[in-house]
């Protein structure tokens, strides 16, 4: 049985969700969604390593902007499926765009939940 793809960084046990490709003739490191097949000059990375990757001196990094999805399961890869389900079940830290934020409310103006402070009429 084939094991799920792991991050290629030394000692990193996490599941790979992205593929780093070195495009040597353009001095560019491309971090994209996990490639279907491993190719020369490609390295699988977990999400933290994919997000924190920095290019070697003189190189550019082109990073996939968006969520890295775990690879879709294949019928002969139940271990990967179980792994993906476990990953999905794990509580993730809130992303900045999910944190409730109303740019128009400004500083606290007496609005708390469903209660409103009614200014005195006299
Ligand atoms: Zn990693």
TrEMBL record:
Q: Where is the composition biased (Basic and acidic residues)?
A: 87-104
Origin organism is Plantactinospora endophytica
Tell me one Pfam family matched here: DUF3499
Tell me what this protein is called.
DUF3499 domain-containing protein
Highest taxon of the lineage:
Bacteria
What InterPro entries does the database record attribute to this sequence?
DUF3499
Region annotation (Disordered) maps to 87-122
